[in-house]
Amino acid sequence: MDGTLIEGGAAPFYLPQGDECDVFAAAHRACLPLLLKGPTGCGKTRFVAHMAARLGRALHTVSCHDDLSAADLIGRYLLKGGETVWVDGPLTRAVREGAICYLDEVVEARKDVAVVLHPLTDDRRILPIDRTGEELHAGPGFMLVASYNPGYQNILKTLKPSTRQRFVALEFGFPSPMLELSVVCRESGLDEDRARLLIRIAGKLRGLKGQDLDEGVSTRLVVYAATLIARGMGFDRAVEVAMIEPLTDEADVKRGLADLVAALAG
Ligand SMILES: Nc1ncnc2c1ncn2[C@@H]1O[C@H](COP(=O)(O)OP(=O)(O)OP(=O)(O)O)[C@@H](O)[C@H]1O
User: Fold this and answer.
1) How far is 124 from 137, CA to CA, in rounded Å?
2) Would you give per-residue pLDDT tens digits along the chain (266 residues)?
3) Domain boundaries in the chain?
4) Which residue has the CA at smallest separation from atom 6 of ligand 1?
5) What are the recorded GO MF terms, alphabetically (predicted)?
6) Number of CB atoms found within 10 A of residue 18's CB
7) Residue among 19, 11, 3 nearest 171 (CA)
8) What's the pTM?
9) Residue 261, CB half-sphere, CA atoms under 13 Å: how many?
10) Cα–Cα distance measured from residue 99 to residue 49, given in angstroms and rounded to the nearest whole number
11) CATH code of domain 2-171
12) Contact 81, 127 (CB under 8 A)
């Protein structure tokens, strides 16, 4: 596999917002790691799955959390049938196989993860495994992709410059209304008229980010609402359970959102 993109229907469905597929492919060819920045549910994970398939690479995805340590990524000795055996973690597996490793919400991970990522994301491209004494050299197929959501206002959880400046970075936003319409119809099977109305509602709700809401409604939630409607749920109820309830716990904000939706839905 020489990094040529495979066209065709085998890859998970993904509608590009711009030139991100070309940037991903170019970074893969150049053996550079890639950082995806953007809000939750805007298509980052789908994009990586799509690109991995088009590049003919296996994909190992890790959802990072605040207890995720370097050992979780690299591997550990485990007791199996009375014997102690070494078991590779997802990052080590990806390096050995020449696969793509996707670290979703990388800022959540513990600090020792950055120490592991540094020699792997600069021109050394090595993964030292202290416990086994191995030092793996990443081949041309391997690529590290990480994502984070700059919108989460947590000053303690941000990437250090020495980490972020090891990545080529792409910024994602919510798709344009036309693009989102295609995504929502394709993902849910809902008709265009009702999908268009959902997207207008989403646009209005996104406008409230920073006032009443921390985060705008994601494309994922619009797809949820559309899927529920396509399967028979009433429009208003689907909007309530998929596009309002998940956004906030505050009763008066919810009421305000419901009024706004009612005005739009007529
Ligand atoms: N451009 C797109 N093409 C196809 N589907 C999309 C696109 N953008 C969003 N989606 C839809 O939105 C859903 C959520 O996207 P995805 O899981 O990739 O979000 P994410 O940005 O990775 O979120 P998180 O940061 O929370 O993991 C997908 O399952 C898909 O249905």
Assistant:
1) 8
2) 445 566 555 899 999 999 999 999 999 999 999 999 998 899 999 999 999 999 999 999 999 999 999 999 999 999 988 999 999 999 999 999 999 999 999 888 888 899 899 999 999 999 999 999 999 999 999 999 999 888 765 555 678 888 888 999 999 999 999 999 999 999 999 999 999 999 999 998 888 776 767 778 999 999 999 999 999 999 999 999 999 999 888 888 888 888 888 888 77
3) 2-171, 177-265
4) 43
5) ATP binding; ATP hydrolysis activity
6) 11
7) 19
8) 0.92
9) 24
10) 12
11) 3.40.50.300
12) no
Mutate-to-test residue for ligand 1 from 35, 46, 106, 149, highest number of ligand atoms within 8 A of CB: 46
Task: Tell me the best of 45, 47, 178 to mutate to test the pocket of ligand 1, counting ligand atoms within 8 Å of each CB and taking the most.
Answer: 45
Pocket residues for ligand 1 (CB within 6 Å)? 13-15, 40-46, 104, 147, 149, 175, 183, 187, 219-220, 223
**How far is residue 101's CA from residue 143's CA, in Å, rounded to a whole number?**
6
Amino acid at 244: I
Residues 6+ positions from 187 with CB-CB distance below 8 Å? 13, 223, 226, 227
Cβ neighbours for 212, distance < 8 A, ≥ 6 positions apart: 248, 253, 256, 257
Q: How far does the centroid of ligand 1 lie from the alpha carbon of residue 77, in Å?
A: 35
